[in-house]
């Protein structure tokens, strides 16, 4: 599960620990409409990992291993949706 997302990478919560320093192929499903998803195929480097005892899961921080313009565009679009949602609640 994606816990945090930025232009520089993401933070995942997983059942198993992943090896820091290793490159992983990650298919990120991004919702585009009700019940529909777009898949971003990314190469990401695990920068760090730690066990989150409170959640009983592992947290891993990932950075892009190679440029992925579609990732940056998606992050920007999701942040815009979040900002609009916040302004509607205010």
Query: Can you identify the CATH superfamily?
Result: predicted glycosyltransferase like domains
What are the segments in which pLDDT stays under 50 over at least 5 consecutive residues?
none
Q: Note the beta-strand portion.
A: over 45%
CATH-scheme architecture: Beta Barrel
Principal-axes shape call: globular
Number-wise, the strands total: 5
Largest sheet, order of strands side by side?
1-2-5-4-3
Mean pLDDT: 88
CATH topology, which one?
Thrombin, subunit H
What's the SSE pattern? EEEEEH
Helix content: 10-25%
How would you sum up this structure, described in words?
With 90 residues, this protein is of the alpha+beta class. The chain has one domain (2-83): Beta Barrel (Thrombin, subunit H), CATH 2.40.10. Helix content is 23%, strand content 52%. The protein contains one helix and five strands. The chain has one helix at residues 69-89, and strands spanning 2-6, 9-14, 23-33, 36-52, 57-64. It has a five-stranded antiparallel β-sheet, covered by helices on one side. Strand 4 (36-52) and strand 5 form a beta hairpin. The chain is globular, with a radius of gyration of 14 Å. The mean pLDDT is 88.
